[in-house]
Design brief:
about 140 residues; mainly alpha
Length: about 140
Amino acid sequence: MGPGIGQTSQLARCLQLNALALAFSLAHTIADYGIIFGVPDANYWGMATYLGVSSAVYGWWGWSMARAAVGSRAALPSLMALSGLWAVLHGATFVYTPITNVLADVVHFGSLLCGLWAAYATWRVLHGGRVAIARAQ
């Protein structure tokens, strides 16, 4: 039986929250893609650029999480920047929609809250020293 929620290491919690922030941010990216380019006369160069930048950011995020999981302290500032900036930027772009469009609000608020929470958890691991990473292994 694995550790309970209270016994989860700081690094494991940081990675879990980054995965959650990544998921909300990706949901926002997919929704925006459908809204922006879901028209018949879509700009294909804009589409390619949007997908290229998004793919690079999520690839970088996944790579940083994998590096942090094996104990690389160099990956932590990268995770903090991604969760604190990219996910929060997605969450802070509120679309003031009617209450009937609850999904848009869930994606925006989820991205904002989980991004901030993940950035804080990453900051705690980064400032916790080598002990926080060593306990996770």
